Amino acid sequence: AMAAERALAMATCTAPVNIAVIKYWGKRDTDLILPINSSLSVTLHQDQLKTTTTAAASRDFTEDRLWLNGKEADVGHPRVQACLREVRRLARKRRGGGEDTAALSLSYKIHIASENDFPTAAGLASSAAGYACLVSVLARLYGVEEELSEVARRGSGSACRSMFGGFVQWQRGERPDGTDSLALQVAPETHWPELRVLVLVKKPVSSTAGMQTSVETSPLLKHRAEVVVPERLAQMMRHIRERDFEGFGQLAMRDSNQFHATCLDTFPPIFYLTDLSRHIIALAHRYNAHHGHTKVAYTFDAGPNAVIFALADTVAEFVEVVRRSFPPATNGDQ
Amino acid sequence: AMAAERALAMATCTAPVNIAVIKYWGKRDTDLILPINSSLSVTLHQDQLKTTTTAAASRDFTEDRLWLNGKEADVGHPRVQACLREVRRLARKRRGGGEDTAALSLSYKIHIASENDFPTAAGLASSAAGYACLVSVLARLYGVEEELSEVARRGSGSACRSMFGGFVQWQRGERPDGTDSLALQVAPETHWPELRVLVLVKKPVSSTAGMQTSVETSPLLKHRAEVVVPERLAQMMRHIRERDFEGFGQLAMRDSNQFHATCLDTFPPIFYLTDLSRHIIALAHRYNAHHGHTKVAYTFDAGPNAVIFALADTVAEFVEVVRRSFPPATNGDQ
């Protein structure tokens, strides 16, 4: 039986970046990565930004190894190990007690290589796409077809949302073991084809992730998670269902602002918005005021980039407005 | 009887600036200026920053007039008129139905001149000192000795806190007519003689006062007013009573940050903190971390200045640290 086992197997996957419009900030369980509130995101097209990961398993490999953008990285990282362990557990469960001799041995060492087609340090939710891709490629390698967003969540919370295209909710869940803290597709991307996402890439600034400091010190974050987000999530689902850009954009901006407000209410305070972000925010509000309704909406994550939502017919004009407002020295390329 | 009336009377008063450590932001009644939460401030010494106002009444004056820092201003401003009306009402009440022929006629026109010894546009709560001073000088002119913080509140909410020295609470009050929305001295300035206040004056930036927009749009401000501030106010009173700088400073910083968080949660968002404010905040946290406890505390109002609290023995060292961190081009003079 041993001789019939495959000696080498390889798989490749890609995974997309997602942009939250109802933000995730704060865990109620840091080990299982269970959030204090549900969140909702828009998954970007993979033709612009994606992660590509290849995994190979072989009986000839003597150790697990991992490369990120061509540089060897620590395969022993607890979150990488959590993903590996969980996918293998699902594979074992799937095979049951029987010996599927055609299946790849779960004891083989693996080599994993992952590449982003965007700057990793740019705060572009790269860990979300990265872990979604890692889990997908491992599942393909081991022939696992189960719901995998729960596993991706163990790599990076928001990675679970990159397991689906279109509009995706990561539901908070209630169970202490996290089995109901999953991503669910709210609508496929075909649901709202006119919606566009612009990413204004800024120079990365160093930022320490202070999510748990916020949970421990911000009274406003607690209120946000318990009271504000549940209402907003229901509202956002309705705006998406109705393809209501006015409602979608307004709420996306409000939620981005509230997320940054809870960062400021953290002690010591966390700042992600800079004077440049303020100018982009002011520009978006001026642009909308000029047109008398919401034509563009901004959202800012825990990093330096601005993300702009607009409908297809607005993109060219707004890009021109941004070009004119920000000289080449301060704006990015994309 | 008419001939016995005084033909001219004059009075001069000064009033101090106050710095809130539990912030006021948002009115529940914009006409009576009733706040959504109680607030607490430290009144500054008048040897550094004060307003001086002189008022004269004469039967020879043909109209009411007002000068602010040497420039004539609109005496018909509703808030100026509210203060005038309320002080005259108290004077009338005091005199009862009788004719006090030695008293200044309430029907004489008045001339008022007010001077700040600090830049008016610098956001240094100048309207607080200004209205406190206006009410004090009118009260002196008309011989009114009643509790006047309620009247000062009608000029500018925080002006009621400038009617007392030391540590002052502006209690929210419950009555719809505002008669219990008063300032009360928590402790005199002699209670904590080592406490120092540094004002780092920055160039003013234009800012629109968006207090009522916050009340209407920020869910976090509502939670702050209803839940967070009542707890914090009790804590702050205890820290002051115990002269506990660690507790006082920590809470002052947290409350400043939370106030700015609610500004950011306002829609459209309001920004008072700039990249320079962020640097001062980071500097204060680094300085405290270096010393292993809270030696300095910052607070920022709806304007460009940073205010630093420290005990007397820390001032010289921290001023030196600020001087070294901010080249003359970016720091102020004081």
From TrEMBL, chains A, B:
It catalyses: (R)-5-diphosphomevalonate + ATP = isopentenyl diphosphate + ADP + phosphate + CO2. One of its GO terms (cellular component) is cytosol. GO terms for biological process: cholesterol biosynthetic process; isopentenyl diphosphate biosynthetic process, mevalonate pathway. Pathway: Steroid biosynthesis; cholesterol biosynthesis. GO terms for molecular function: ATP binding; diphosphomevalonate decarboxylase activity. Residues 202-333 form the Mvd1 C-terminal domain. The keyword Lyase applies. Keywords: ATP-binding, Lipid biosynthesis, Lipid metabolism, Lyase, Nucleotide-binding, Steroid biosynthesis, Steroid metabolism, Sterol biosynthesis, Sterol metabolism. The keyword ATP-binding applies. Its EC number is 4.1.1.33. Residues 15-183 form the Diphosphomevalonate decarboxylase-like N-terminal domain. SUPFAM superfamilies: GHMP Kinase, C-terminal domain, Ribosomal protein S5 domain 2-like. InterPro entries: GHMP_kinase_C_sf, Mev_decarb, Mev_diP_decarb, MVD-like_N, Mvd1_C, Ribosomal_Su5_D2-typ_SF, Ribsml_uS5_D2-typ_fold_subgr. Catalyzes the ATP dependent decarboxylation of (R)-5-diphosphomevalonate to form isopentenyl diphosphate (IPP). Functions in the mevalonate (MVA) pathway leading to isopentenyl diphosphate (IPP), a key precursor for the biosynthesis of isoprenoids and sterol synthesis. PANTHER family: DIPHOSPHOMEVALONATE DECARBOXYLASE. Belongs to the diphosphomevalonate decarboxylase family. This is Diphosphomevalonate decarboxylase. It comes from Orthonyx spaldingii. The lineage of its organism: Eukaryota, Metazoa, Chordata, Craniata, Vertebrata.
